[in-house]
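Dear colleague,

Following up on yesterday's call, I've attached the two folding results inline so they're easy to grep. Please treat them as preliminary; we haven't cross-checked anything against experimental data yet. The first protein's sequence and structure tokens come first.
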Amino acid sequence: MASCAVMDIEDYETPKQQVIKRNVRRSLHLRATENGEDEVRLRELENSNIPGVGSIFLKTWGCSHNHSDAEYMAGQLAAYGYSITEDKESADLWLLNSCTVKTPSEDGFKNFVKEAKSRDKYVVVAGCVPQADRSNKEIQGISVVGVQQIDRVVEVVEETLKGNSVRLFQTKKLDGKKTGGARLDLPKIRKNPLIEIIAINTGCLNNCTYCKTKLARGDLGSYQPEDIVERAVEAFSDGVVELWLTSEDLGAYGHDIGVTLPELLWQLVAVIPDGCMMRLGMTNPPYILEHLKEMGDILDHPRVYSFLHIPVQAGSDRVLEDMKREYTVYDFNYIVDFLKQRIPDINIATDIICGFPTETEEDFAQTLSLCEKYKFSSLFINQFYPRPGTVAARMKRLPTHEVKKRSKQLTNLFNSYKPYTHKTGQSQHVLVTEIAHDKLHYVGHNKNYEQVLLPMREDLMGKQVQVRISATGKHHMVGILSSEFVQTLDTFQLSTNKSKPYQLSFQEGIIQERRVFCTAN
């Protein structure tokens, strides 16, 4: 694996007045500031500062890339001796991994920061909020792990528990070029031991006017294919049965290192064991157009879910131009129509932003028409939120009531159809990997990555099973095990599960939210 020559920004900060009244010993710290002046910080420490001793409460907001970062940070901390806990009350330190895509998620993060301060907890923040806005007043004086510095989380936690404030923001580079980030072979605690999330690249090639993530993740940085494949092989050897590929834009992978996404995917397909599956993440339309035929072949492969998340954001070319999305509605339609012709039952998910500042009623009518045409089974509906620092934040906003009205119209359209009714009675293969929200069923996914609820039999978890669809809902189907499968279940084993039994419980304290497959905000 290639080594990285890394330059770090290490800014040890010492707030001038922060004395916490607890019955613990005190320590005096002298640190040099950027202007060369010394500041004295009086910080009360716990009775023991033995490295690796203590408990960490870890909470994550946002996308699967953030979730992967959280799993890596948890793994490193656990390997060093820290315990990861869901009990924020007893935790010695809170590690808050933020998302800046939407205002509500950022507000939730800030509320946790305030709560941690009010409880006199040591705090480390990570993720896109501090990376995108280093001067954010909510995080001043608080330690920060930058999005490309997660391999140094132990160092930051150690210094924070000593009373120091450490801020690591720098970009990792190799031969002067940005890389994907921290090494992929770091220790990891998976929230779900059956699912491996690999971020194959970070950043993107676009400059969308509404997106603040670009300010945090920056320009494109891709991992080398051999590093990604090596990580996948290791994960499957650990008993993983489902591989998720994630990034800010999967389709842009490799543009910076002279590799194409299909080249990487074919290498990964070659190492996926029988009975295991790979799920592709989000890709913007311009980049999948470059390899559309080959992507169709890959998505039709028996060990790859026939599922793709392609965010269109609007059904109006004029709005797309104002968003600087770099494609047209025709381009999006061409992609969807081609893939549906190649794989008739393919599952295409998409995103819509309702109420972009320049969106007219006619523009929104075109968006409704697009969604009516395809009747997406997975539609992520978002109201426009102006993100500070973006071009769109300087645009005149539409009235809030108008934005909400459009969001409600699209939500009503989405709720007006049932995408799975015609599948009642079908026989399907599903891979069982999760526990349902009701805690009464297991969740499996069929070839199109559609959710199928199954009875909670322990011998199903981690296995690919044959079911008959007995009922359907808006977001799921219900499966009954085929009689042939029930008869042979006791002797049925995946080739990857001959010596290592699957764990049925998730690791504690990694990610608090469960993945939501379809949302309407």
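Below is the second protein, in the same order (sequence, then structure):
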Amino acid sequence: MGTSTSAVRNAFLWSMSAIYLLAFSSLYVQIPGLYGRSGLLPASRMLQLDGKTPHERFSERPTLLWLTPTLGLTAEHGMDLLCLAGMLVALVAVVSEVMRDVPAFLMLWVLYFSLYQVGQTFLWFQWDILLLEAGFLAVLAAPMNPMKWLLPSPLPHDAVALWLVRWLLFRLMFASGVVKLTSMCPTWWGLTALNYHYESQCIPTPLAWFAHQLPEWFQKLSVVATYVIEIPIPLLFFAPVRSLRIFSFYAQVVLQVLIILSGNYNFFNLLTLTLCLALLDDKHLSYLFPWIRVSPEASLSGSTEKTTWQRFQAVLTRVTETLVYAGLFYWTCVLFTLRLSGFTVQSRIGFTSDQFHSALTRVMPVTIWLGVISLSCHIGAALVRSFSSEEGVRGRVLMCIRCLLFSAVAVFMFTVSLVPHTVIDWQANNNLWPIVKHWNQRLDKFQLVNSYGLFRRMTGVGGRPEVIVEGSNSLHQGWKEYDFLYKPGNVKVAPPVVAPHQPRLDWQLWFAALGSYGHNPWFVNMAHRLLHGDRHVLALMAADPFHGKPPKYIRATLYHYHFTEFAKNSSAWWRRERQGEYLPPLQKDDPSLIKFLTHHNLLMEGKASVKKPKGMLGWVLKWLRGMLGSMSGLMLQVTLVVTGLVASWVQPIMAKVV
């Protein structure tokens, strides 16, 4: 069996470089409207000096943006600089293998973390913290490679770094499955969640409309498949049988691809697929992607004649596979009471919430011990490789010491990750040692280990809540809707395909519709900016219905949206029902509006801390903003990724010519 993972490590690092490139470029085009001094949530409000020393400021909010005044830059232009630097480093790492090293990934992590610190609600998504955690693991997995003219050599402990990636993937998927049941959401317990998911998700794709039309029995069966893929199958990530790990890989890939086809979840699904690479070895990776260069050990693996012991292992593997697959099928049928009814498969959950919570309490310690045993085996194998990969006593001792130091870091990361891992079960969490919780708390602000839980509760059961913003020059007539770039508005406009770009305003409007404007001060600020005709905020929308002459009044109305039905043969994609007022009509000089924005520190114009960028660097940033800022997020992403791919393919050809 192939056990080499050097190509997998390089594929993981390349993919992480591409994900960073997508993340930085997506955010860059939105900075003026979101974080500029007249943006919805000005970044400068998070960087108030307040008489604090530099050490106090960095301790409270660790970000490179504290240094922007020394460069003669505003907070907005500082964010531009960090995004452009991240795009440049990520693009170079995509193109050149020798640049995928510790300094590059450490720089990428620091840049994104610095942006996250001032990003406020527009950067507080699960995929942002997942990128930070995965990005830190990329730092651990990357080689030092001080000699840039040579390709990095594989190290004995590379497999341990990839194991940490696998453990992150396990925590992400297992928790995402468990929280659907611990939330006690009736749609997840009734297997009807997908009846509402496709139309109620943040930004559906056109295929979501078709998926919504599928019969209910199929939707329920799809929920069952989701549970199986997210809860029991992730346990196979640590199986000693290679084929079971590969099976779990394809199960996750199928789920992520289906999500990509039906929903615009920016770079999140691509990042999850990147984590899935840790389930493979070089042999299978080269099978999937024949152009990937692998070691001779991996490519020749399995080509020699098998011994009696190898034949016995093969038989044992087949028996284990059969038992696992049969067990998965049997218990799926039992726990979800699957039965054939004509040409359909009927299903319902066959256990109670008490039974589930009792089983979870028993399973959580098993997952921890499974991680302990699996990590110990990987560390032991790495130590053996450290001893055998070097010649001479001195070389072996140094390599073993290096491997032990890295293993200590891996054990520490695994241990502190148990705190977020066990939040889904209070008993397992209470059983953790206090010292573990203490260290997790100390690292908490760096987002190195986090808890996850996607689609915990299904929203939009009675209809997808959607806020429609309108403007008018009269309170009694002439109201015109503001169409946003991607979120539902006009019922005849098809859902877009925008991933891997994340339009953060459109996303946050989805969350705002679930609450009230009082809990979303940025929404009131958006109305204020529209009353002033702010061009940066208008750039986040599809069009200005008032053509540069801002209206006298702005209001917002709450609607419930539903996908139209296939049988009714409508030309519209949506139908909607008015629910009531979301935001009352406002004028730009309304005293209550000014008081509200002042209370939330959202009026940054005219403050002494606000200055224009100075010097050559400020001029370059403004010039680049003029060149790149007019592009859509998706177009900028495509341009950069295609540039990176073309440069990657041309580079070896040019090297041969030279």
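For the second protein, one point worth flagging: The longest strand covers residues 574-586.

Best wishes,
A.L.
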